[in-house]
Amino acid sequence: MEGYEALVHSAFGGEKPDVTDPKVLAWLIRRNALEMTHISRGSHIGSVFSVAEIIAVLYTGVLHVDPQNPRMPDRDRLILSKGHAGSAVYAALAETGFFPVEQLKTHYANGAILSGHVSHKGVPGVEVSTGSLGHGLGVGTGMALGAKMDGESWRTWVVLGDGECDEGSVWEAALQAAQYGLDRLCAIVDYNHMQSLFTVAETLKLEPFEEKWKNFGWNAMSVDGHDVGALRDACAWAQNQAGSGKPSVILANTVKGKGVSFMENNILWHYRTPQGEEYEAALKELEAQRP
Amino acid sequence: MRDRFVRVLVDEMAQDPKIVLIIGDLGFGVMKPVWERFPDRIINAGIAEQGMVSMAAGLAATGKTVLVYSIGNFPTLRPLEQIRNDCAYHNANVKIVCVGGGFVYGSLGMSHHATEDLAVMRALPDVRCFAPGDPIETEAVTREIIHTPGTCYLRLGRGNEPTIHAGMLVDWKAPSPVTLRKGTDIALLSTGGILTQTVAAAERLAGINIWAEVVSFPCIKPMDTEAVRQLTRRFRHIVTVEEHNITGGFGSAVCEIAAETGSGCRIHRIGLQDCYSSIVGNQQYLREVYGMDEKSIADKAEAWLNEA
Fold first, then answer.
1. Candidates B20, B58, B63; nearest CB to A138
2. Is the pTM of this model over 0.90?
3. ipTM of the predicted structure?
């Protein structure tokens, strides 16, 4: 059935959405995530909504990638270390042509390839499978180190969650990346200030967060993680740190559940799945925001 | 074993510029030949094993053959999930190398006894596991893992073990076991550095007219199933010897095959009897305490033969 793609694109009135526009792509990530978690009864929609603009900006001109040639040797590498927001990356990849949008409806499905946490097996454009937190920055450090050893100019991007930064392994990698001067390694933290039970401040405080990264030897800056212009500038800033001898991190201040009023800053939507009236209400709110 | 490993590694690194060594802030003196010859291809990850193994997986994704070197449990149990998720699941070309398998660091205490590593690593799909018994096996196995794509685990002993094999294992291919001595009464199957004790036990048994076959298993995953099946058909008693817990390791692997073969052969496992050692002592002392030195092996083999 051609129904899925037609459904998630229906708000564009039959026109093909311009997926080179980060606002459009961010909207499509949310629209797809709502539909995917609705169909699958899956979770983590709040984390997908907070990271939507980050992923959208990366896939609209920041990442040097080619959907026709997902394994090209000089591509930029992206690792979604907060693997539970996998549907954001799946949606971005499908909408930008790495695989059919129609396939997104098989998220979580028996026999499908789109697992809840992002998987590289059989999914074009995914470099690394994640899901257990605290792995991505280390793997990204290795990739960036390999590129540096070979004199390659491609970059490694790692998107982390804030709660994920509880993991000691994140800080092991932070020390290592700084030690080896990996200035083509760029991390973005989706700083939505919430974990799975409580706020970050109530769980394990990260502040002063920017100073922590700086003290670990990184270039660091903070940005509004839902402002696509500011995010794009921040990514350019990170790219321009090549030659600084230091890796760079962007702390993207975001809102968990961003885009649907009753999901915003509501811990419930880390795991809750949108069904019934809640699905209808969320859809209505998203449709009213279509760029 | 350690020094032979480094010698072979240097030789392989000279031939292949894609080989990279990561060390976990250990082995400075031992790795001197690598530091001197390939300073750009040795990376000290610091005392940060999780980051070390994730980094190895990332490096491997850029086309490198990555060896990760540390001691005891530090390169296995500490970053276990990084080996599982980042290396094995991604078929990363990463070789985890442990120096100090078993009681090598005996007097340093329980934290430094690697006595569950084979069981744990063997349980991970797509991780090949190797435990050479002497420097000759170490050379063959080191070359084998470097030339085998994918994630491997190499468990070494220490430095200065005696050479047991008479000559190089020229045509050896994993996972073949290596027969050191033919016998008719009982088979002693051994993996890793405890091979010295197993061979000496067979000589003791010969002194009382018990003819023990000695077979060394430098590769325990995959296991050479057919070789084990044939041994279970030829012998009524097989003794497995490992400087490791008897649960889940080499003896267990032999039992799995023997049980499925259903030959009626009895398998007797020699190793640490599902406990931690809190006794202070050097490697040989602890082997004696836990009944895996040459005399204990010979005495137990004789007793088991006499049981039935």
1. B58
2. yes
3. 0.96
Question: Does residue A72 belong to the interface with chain B, where contact is any CB pair within 8 Å?
Answer: no
Query: Are the C-beta atoms of B50 and A134 separated by less than 8 Å?
Result: yes
> Exposure pattern of A79-103 as b/e (b: 16+ CB <10 Å)?
bbbbbbbbbbbbbbbbbbebbebeb
Query: Looking at CA atoms only, how far is residue B279 from chain A in angstroms?
Result: 32
Query: What is the tens place of the pLDDT at every residue in B247-273?
Result: 999 999 999 999 999 888 999 999 999
Q: Residue B81: which of A132, A86, A166 has the closest Cα?
A: A132
- CATH for the stretch B178-307: 3.40.50.920
Q: Measuring CA to CA, how many Å separate B43 from each of A149, A183, B68?
A: 11, 17, 9
- Asked if B57 reaches chain A (Cβ–Cβ under 8 Å), the answer is yes
Distance between CA atoms of residues B275 and B249, nearest Å? 14
> Domain containing A202: what range?
3-288
The per-residue pLDDT for B241 is 98
Residue B263's pLDDT is what?
A: 86
Q: What is the pLDDT of residues A195-251, one digit of tens each?
A: 999 999 999 999 999 999 999 999 999 999 999 999 999 999 999 999 999 999 999
Report the SS3 class of residue B243: strand
The CATH number of domain B2-156 is 3.40.50.970: yes
| Number of domains chain A is built from | 1
Angle, helices B2-15 vs B135-146, to 10°: value is: 30
Residue among B40, B51, B89 minimizing CB distance to A141:
B51
